[in-house]
Amino acid sequence: MSATQKKRVLIAEDDPVLRHLLQFTLDRAGMDVTAVADGQLAWEAIESSEKFDAMVTDHEMPALSGVELIGRVVEKAPISVIVLCTAKGFEIDPDRIVDRPGLVSLVSKPFSPKQLVSIIEERLEKNASDGT
Q: What is the pLDDT of residues 6-27, one digit of tens each?
C-alpha cells in the first residue's frame, strides 16, 4: 500500500499489551492506526469526524462494550469492516449483533495478529471490488 492508499483502522482494546501489539502489527502492514483504551474513547474518535475504513474492537471493555460500540457505528458511522475480538468465542453469533449479515467478523482470543491483518485486508479488498 502506498501512503496515499493507507487504510485507517481504529482499535478499541482495554488490554494495553494487546492494544500495542495490534497497533504495531497493523502499522507494519501499512495501515494508519488509531488505538484507544475503551469503547467510549473509540466513539469519541469517530464522532470527532475522523474517517475510519475498519474498526477492531474488544467485546468486553469499560465505559462502552464492543457490541454497544458496534451498534452506534452501524447506526451513525460509515465503517464497512468491523472485527469483534472476544474470549467468548462460539457463544457469539456476529450476524446477531447487527441486522446486516457479514458486517462483523468475529475473532476468538487468543488469535494471531497476522490473522487479523489478513481478515481486514481481505474484507477491505472485497468491499472495494463490491463498490461498498
A: 899 999 999 999 999 999 999 9
